[in-house]
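User: quick one, fold this
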Amino acid sequence: MAIGNKLRQARENLSLTLEDIESTTKIRRKYLEALENEQFGILPGRVYARCFLNTYARFLGLNTKEIIQKYDRIFPPETDGETETAGPGRLKPKKSYTTPKIDTCDRLTANRDAHLVAQIRKALAEKKKQPWWERPVIRLLVKLR
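Assistant:
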């Protein structure tokens, strides 16, 4: 039996309306209708389709694993690495985000750290008798915070 028919039949056997299910599951009515009519292209994406199917089937007391497996057989996830199918007629862009590595940032950080270490050493070397809160090291560390 098809997924949509199975969902509709289970809902009707329980004498429930789509409004009843919408208020309980918080799945919008148009998505519930799409699930029952197997119009998966209306759904926002593959993840949502699987989640809505799981929630709806669990609410109706159906075997969620079986429903999800049927959906996956009809709309298998693409594994070519280029695109991921969100549902019939929907494609997501390839997920490959690369951040360019800029070594100048590393050098700037290293230079800044070396400069801070030099300032702290200089402040520690000063042998003035001052209360701890007025010492240059403390002021420097507070400033860095």
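User: anything notable?
Assistant: The chain has seven helices and two strands.
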